[in-house]
UniProtKB/TrEMBL annotation:
Residues 102-234 form the AAA+ ATPase domain. PANTHER family: AAA DOMAIN-CONTAINING (PTHR23074), VACUOLAR PROTEIN SORTING-ASSOCIATED PROTEIN 4A (PTHR23074:SF83). The lineage of its organism: Bacteria, Pseudomonadati, Pseudomonadota, Alphaproteobacteria, Acetobacterales. GO terms for molecular function: ATP binding; ATP hydrolysis activity. Belongs to the AAA ATPase family. Keywords: ATP-binding, Nucleotide-binding. SMART domains: AAA. SUPFAM superfamilies: P-loop containing nucleoside triphosphate hydrolases (SSF52540). InterPro entries: AAA+_ATPase, ATPase_AAA_core, ATPase_AAA_CS, MT-severing_AAA_ATPase, P-loop_NTPase. This is ATP-binding protein.
Length: 360
C-alpha cells in the first residue's frame, strides 16, 4: 500500500511460485507477466526508485535487472557451486546468529555467451531478491575523481537494500590502466571497489562476472569466496539447450537433439539459442520447418561467439560432404543412417565418406 516496488515484486514472485506449485500455470504466468512490466502501475502511483547517477552524464550507474523467464542450463559442477551459494545466501540470518556470517560473494567467469549474466539473475530469482546490475565501465568517468565517487554512490545505495548486487564486466576496472596510462587512477578505483565491498552489510549478496579473470586484481578476486567458471556447454547441457530452444521440449525430437548435440561441440549457449531462434523464425515465416541437413550445416559452420544462421538454400556438394563426414566422425553415425538423415542413398553417403578417406 505504500507503493514499495521491491516488496510488491517480492510478494508477487512468491504468489507466482505458489500458483505454479498449485498447478495453476496460467495464473503463475499472468502474475509473472505483470511483474516483468518494470513496475509500470507503481510508477504511475508516483513511486520511483531514485537510482545513483553519474554527475556529469546523468546516466544511472545501477539498473534493476529482471528475473529470467528461461531456465539456465548448467554443467554439474557449476550447478553444485550455485546450489551451495544459494543455500548459504538463504540462511544469512542463521549464519550471522551463530557468528559465522561472512560477505557472500560469487564470481562467475567464462567465455562470452556462456550464461554468466543469466545465472546471476537466476540466482536472484531463486533468492526472491531484486537484482541491481552495475556495469563497471559506466562508472568509469572521464573526470578524475568522479569514478571513485560513482563507486561509493553505488555501494551506499546497495547498503540499504536486501538485494543482489551484480557487478557485470568486472575486467573494466583493469582497463583503466590501458585507457588512462595512469596507474594511480587504477589503484584508486580498485581501492574504492574493495572498500565498497567490505562496507556492505552481510545481507547484500554480491555476484561478479568477467570474461578475463586474469585481469582482475587479486585482492578483488579474494573478496569472492565462491567462484564458478562457466565452461562451454558439455554434451548433456547442449542436448538440454537444443531440446529447449529449438524443439520446445517436444519428446518426439530426441533423435535430432542427440545428433545436434554431438556435432555442436565448441558452441556456447548463446550460439545454440541464436541458431535455434533463427530456425524457428524461418519455420514460422516460411510456413515450413527447415530441412534437418541445413540445420546441421549451420551448427557445423558456426564458431563460438559467431553463429552461422541457418537458411533454406540448397546445399552444395562440398557442404553435403562436410555434413556427412561430421555425422560419421563426431556423432559416430552409421552410413545407412547418414543417408537417411541427408535424404540420399546409402551408396551416396558412402561416397561422401570415401572421398574424405573415411569409409570403413
Ligand atoms: N547456460 C545457459 N543456459 C541457458 N541459456 C543460456 C546459457 N548460456 C547462454 N544462454 C543464452 O544466451 C544468452 C546470453 O547469455 P549471457 O548474456 O548470460 O552470457 P554471458 O556469459 O553473460 O556473456 P557476456 O560475457 O557476453 O556478457 C542468455 O540470455 C541465454 O538465453
Ligand atoms: Mg554478460
Amino acid at each position: 500500500m505504500s507503493a514499495d516496488y521491491t516488496r510488491v515484486r517480492r510478494v508477487g514472485g512468491v504468489l507466482a511460485r505458489m500458483s505454479a506449485e498449485a498447478r495453476d500455470d496460467e495464473g503463475a504466468r499472468a502474475i509473472q507477466a505483470v511483474l516483468r512490466k518494470r513496475g509500470v502501475p507503481l510508477q504511475a502511483s508516483g513511486f520511483a526508485e531514485a537510482l545513483p547517477r553519474d554527475a556529469t552524464s546523468r546516466l544511472p550507474l545501477v539498473e534493476e535487472g529482471q528475473w529470467p523467464a528461461t531456465p539456465a542450463f548448467l554443467t554439474e559442477e557449476v550447478g553444485r557451486t550455485t546450489s551451495r551459494f544459494i543455500e548459504d545466501a538463504k540462511n544469512i540470518a542463521l549464519l550471522a546468529e551463530k557468528g559465522v556470517s561472512a560477505r557472500l560473494g560469487m564470481l562467475l567467469h567464462g567465455a562470452p555467451g556462456t550464461g554468466k549474466s543469466l545465472l546471476a539473475s537466476y540466482v536472484a530469482a531463486l533468492l526472491e531478491r531484486p537484482i541491481y546490475v552495475v556495469r563497471l565501465d559506466s562508472m568509469i568517468s572521464s573526470r578524475l575523481g568522479e569514478t571513485a565517487k560513482n563507486v561509493r554512490g553505488v555501494f551506499e545505495f546497495m547498503a540499504s537494500r536486501e538485494g543482489v548486487l551484480f557487478l557485470d564486466e568486472m575486467d573494466a576496472i583493469a582497463k583503466v590502466r590501458d585507457d588512462k596510462h595512469e596507474l594511480g587512477e587504477l589503484k584508486r578505483v580498485v581501492n574504492t571497489v574493495l572498500q565498497g565491498l567490505d562496507s556492505l552489510p552481510d545481507s547484500v549478496v554480491v555476484i561478479g562476472a568477467t570474461n578475463h579473470p586474469h585481469l582482475l586484481d587479486p585482492a578483488i578476486w579474494r573478496r569472492f569466496p565462491y567462484k564458478a567458471e562457466l565452461p562451454l556447454p558439455d554434451l548433456s547441457v547442449r542436448s538440454a539447450m537444443w531440446r529447449h530452444f529449438l524443439y520446445a521440449n517436444d519428446d518426439a525430437r530426441e533423435k535430432d537433439v542427440a545428433v545436434l548435440a554431438r556435432i555442436s561441440e565448441g558452441l556456447s549457449g548463446a550460439d545454440v539459442e541464436n541458431i535455434s531462434l533463427a530456425a524457428r523464425r524461418r519455420e514460422i515465416l516460411d510456413g515450413d520447418a527447415l530441412p534437418f541437413p541445413q540445420l546441421l550445416l549451420s551448427a557445423l559452420a558456426s564458431r563460438a561467439g559467431n553463429p552461422s544462421l541457418p537458411d533454406r538454400r540448397d546445399l552444395s556438394a562440398p557442404e553435403r560432404q562436410k555434413i556427412a563426414v561430421a555425422l560419421h566422425k563426431k556423432a559416430n553415425i552409421k552410413v545407412s543412417e547418414i543417408g537417411r538423415i541427408m535424404g540420399v542413398s546409402r551408396q551416396m553417403a558412402h561416397r561422401y565418406l570415401k572421398e574424405d578417406g573415411n569409409a570403413e
